[in-house]
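Cross-check.
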Amino acid sequence: MSEFIKSIDPNHMVTSGMEGFSTDEEGDGHLDNPGSWALCQGTDFIKGHSFSSIDYATVHIYPEHNTWNWAESKFCDAQC
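Predicted model, tokenized:
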């Protein structure tokens, strides 16, 4: 769909609209998820933004559920 939009208007900024979860259990992309439940959401944020027709990405951050671990540059469950 992003390629189609770009074919009509190459100056139109396009994003995927994904929530920001990763389904990558093999690599370390899933460590940025807000919890282990996010692995089964069916979207992969990194792969979904790897197309050259995608211009930018957004994420939804809910501080009451997640904590940003500044030392390791990743999200962790609120317990940490």
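The first strand starts at residue 66 and ends at 69. The beta strands are 66-69, 74-77. Passed to J.P. for a second look.
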